[in-house]
Specification:
With 308 residues, the protein is of the alpha/beta class. It has one domain: Inosine-uridine Nucleoside N-ribohydrolase, Chain A. Helix content is 38%, strand content 19%. It is built from 12 helices and 12 strands. The chain has helices at 13-23, 42-56, 78-81, 103-113, 127-135, 164-168, 170-177, 188-191, 198-205, 210-230, 240-247, 294-305; strands at 3-9, 28-35, 62-64, 118-122, 143-149, 183-186, 195-196, 235-236, 252-257, 259-261, 272-274, 286-292. The protein has an 8-stranded mixed sheet with strand order 3-2-1-4-5-6-12-9, sandwiched between helices. Strands 7-8 form a two-stranded antiparallel sheet. It has a two-stranded antiparallel ribbon with strand order 10-11. Helix 1 (13-23) packs parallel to helix 11 (240-247) and helix 9 (198-205) runs antiparallel to helix 10. The radius of gyration is 18 Å and the shape is globular. It starts with a strand and ends with a helix. Bound molecules: alpha-D-ribofuranose and calcium ion (CA). Calcium ion binds next to helix 1.
Length: 308
């Protein structure tokens, strides 16, 4: 039976690749794509989700969600992803529009309609997920799993302490991490192992297909920020790690830890505090990605993108 997922995202270059990987994988039934503010504003992330489904040629429904965090001010990452959020490739004009239903109501509806079967895959701020948990607590025991890109067992990328997705809405992240839903966290400590250097980008271009070229051009644009900031020869494909984990969990080494969110403002605001050495005695609440077979990750990605 195909695994039912809802991708909740802020496309964004790596979100776009995660969407393409999911839509190309018959093991997954993508019930819908829900969008949230994050890399760029909600209007852009929603349009970008429509653009990516156009590139994929798959009419998966798109639902717009939260346009701002629960409490803090909104931050964004145009400097990384460009003003549109998908700088680099030519973007086709999307046909169709987002559905009229709010993303949070769609998430609630689908989880109640398919009890125990829906996996939520957030790769942006956790605002939509937190709102769904608060609006309809009945879904909490009915969500199969939440597999998210966010946080880190160690250092941040937007502040020394915090990773961007969690920092976008630490209060929402705290609601999600405290809800008791089975959690998988693909944090920076894991995703930074997947740097798309030129030889890896060349594999997508070598496919000789429009989607292969689209992915290569996304990664070439995404690389520039990482060259400047980290002196790396490529960008990590953070968000695709969630989908790859669902498809090939054997590519990943994980550990069970207690992870809590710092929701108080200050130096550690938005940090995912991972009790790596189990010093608190608190029960684990999260499966945390530690290592990935990077060559296996890229073989999977190139194979599936090559399937379009
Ligand atoms: O910190 C990386 C995360 O922030 C990724 O999901 C990227 O798309 C941005 O949302
Ligand atoms: Ca993202």
């Amino acid at each position: 039976m195909r695994r039912k997922i809802i991708l909740d995202c802020d496309p964004g270059h790596d979100d776009a690749i995660a969407i393409l990987l999911a839509l190309a994988s018959p093991e997954l039934e993508v019930l819908g794509i829900t969008t949230v503010f994050g890399n760029v504003g909600l209007e852009h992330t929603t349009r970008n989700a429509l653009v990516v489904r156009e590139v994929a040629g798959v009419q998966v429904p798109v639902y717009a969600g939260a346009d701002r965090p629960l409490v803090r001010d909104r931050i964004s990452a145009e400097a990384v992803h460009g003003a549109s959020g998908l700088g680099g490739p030519h973007l086709p004009t999307p046909t169709g529009q987002a559905e009229p239903k709010h993303a949070v109501l769609f998430i609630i509806e689908q989880v109640l309609q398919h009890p125990g079967q829906v996996t939520l895959v957030p790769t942006g701020a956790l605002t939509n997920i937190a709102l769904a948990l608060r609006l309809e607590p009945r879904i909490i025991p009915q969500i199969r799993e939440i597999v998210l890109m966010g946080g880190s067992i160690d250092i941040g990328n937007w502040t020394p302490s915090a990773e961007f997705n969690i920092l976008c809405d630490p209060h929402a992240a705290r609601i999600v991490f405290e809800a008791g839903v089975p959690l998988v966290m693909m944090g920076l400590n894991l995703t930074h192992q997947t740097v798309a250097h030129p030889a890896r980008i060349a594999r997508f271009r070598a496919l000789g297909t429009p989607v292969g070229r689209f992915v290569a051009e996304l990664l070439e644009f995404f690389r520039e920020h990482h060259r400047r900031r980290y002196k790396w020869e490529g960008a990590p494909i953070h968000d695709a790690c969630t989908i790859a984990y669902l498809l090939r969990p054997e590519l990943f080494k994980t550990g069970l830890f207690n992870v809590e969110i710092e929701s108080n403002e200050g130096l550690a605001f938005g940090r995912t505090v991972c009790d790596y050495w189990h010093v608190t005695g608190k029960p684990p609440n999260c499966t945390v990605g530690l290592e990935v077979d990077v060559e296996g990750f890229y073989d999977l990605l190139v194979e599936r993108i090559g399937g379009y």
